[in-house]
Protein 1
Amino acid sequence: MLALEWLKNARNIMDTLETTQMENVQKAAKVMADTIEAGGWVHTFGCGHATIPVEEMYPRIGSFVGFHPLCELPLTFFTQIIGQMGIHQFLFLERAEGYGVEIMKNYDFGSHDCIWIFSHTGINNVNIDVALEAKKRGMTVIAYGSAAEAEGKTTRHPSGKTIFQIADIVVDSCVPIIDASVTLKNHFDKVGPLSTHAFVTLVWMTITTVAEILADRGVKLHIHPSHNVPGDTTARERLDAAIAEYKKKVKSL
């Protein structure tokens, strides 16, 4: 069954992340923890399906204030597929030189901020523009993606570099560059991609590590609670407190 083949591939990815990427996750998490403890933001960015890990972070049950999504709608919402904000426009925009520069003009970044970028291949212009602009502003750039598999791939950016060559810290998603992992008879293209699975796995490996570091330091986390548990009479109060903290911090942008 192809379902079982995909599950095997997905488990292999998780095992590989555990055995090869924990040190890099720890490095990334320490930078993020330092940022949050100092009152800064961990800004998060991705395009296409690489916005899914961004959406996983906050607001999300079990996450906490400190992660700020930089979600550019034309790069995230292309589920109409054709027509307005369709696939063709998205593919053009993620490769458009200078678009990322314009995105970054919209924000007042703080001196303690860092940025966390998701990019499977690391070759498209908008991600690289965002990374380069972040470095100009003194931010640590953390990139998650298929770094080893992307080595040697030609970047589309005039800098001549991929995002993995620009980033200060790289965590490898360990996903094949083709992404899809299951061979289908009578077809050239495979099915069953793995990059989203790997990214979301890495998100929670990282955020739980950030939480652990901050808790060990005695830092109060404003955690987004579940408000659907019968009998939890203070859930709404804790939720309101987390949103109030986010609102207070986001004014700095």
Protein 2
Amino acid sequence: MFSIDVILKYSPIPVSVQRKEKDAAQSVYEQAKSVMTANPPQLLELTCDKQPDKTIAVLSDQISAVVISQKTATASGRTPGFLATSEDEG
């Protein structure tokens, strides 16, 4: 499963949709990237493979970033791209 996170300006929580196939996820990523530069702003509407009833719509001028990542069965609930370290007490 692949997750596409759309980070919006002035919003601390990204909106996310999932795709089962890598090519489908890459297509959503490319679509989001292309509307980010649209003038005038366009409406980007996305659906989710994991939750078929989930639909999101955002204005392209509100998107500040798009992230694509692969979800694994051993996901720990942490946001991809960030590393947490701990010190061993000895």
Protein 3
Amino acid sequence: MTAVRDHHQPHSSAVGWPGAGIADAGSARILLIDDEPQIIGFVSRALQRAGYHVDAAADGADGVKRAISTGYDLVILDLIMPGLDGKAVLAAIRHALPHQAVLVLSCNADVSTKVECLDLGAQDYLTKPFSLDELLARVNARVREESRHSEVSHLGQLTLDASRLVADSGDGPVALTRLEFLCLRALVERGGESVPKTVLLACMWGIDFDPGSNLVDVCIRRLRAKLGFGLIETVRGEGYRLAC
């Protein structure tokens, strides 16, 4: 089974759509870790035509070695590989490089697997078969996101450090998971306004989210436990807002 939807579509339709490239794509480096030669070839060509520099690794061990030794703006990672699987690769890369951006590209569509990977530090998760347009859009978004990682946001007494995934509500820095960070940042960016659950979920999960998921409620409970139960208020019938 081909892992890319409409594999025989013309390359021009895959990479020539408006906004496929970004202004600094020529300076961005991407590492693709996948054991399927077809995927490596197809995705590498598309990314190169969009202006990215692409390296590839055909197994997990080589992927970890390349990621740690060469510095990349983004790692695109398959999960199901012989030997060292994708979760182990993700954990190893994030342990050595806590700020490395990783986009998981896998045929595993199980929600628990997606949540586990995001909690391990992946920035995004796209399932196979996939649209090449969507992959390029997500790659562009992740590369742009990395340019914001030095930002420190403030709202009242709350400080949110994107480079370390750390928040401080006045009692000292507290480490957050990636999902907790994304949820809290969405609240910070909207000040003290009420933010609907669907908006928070989209900010945390990207464009491929389940509107019926309780992921937001779980993250809010964790954030309250870590940063104080008075930090985030529930707006009944709407969503949540910061009490800062």
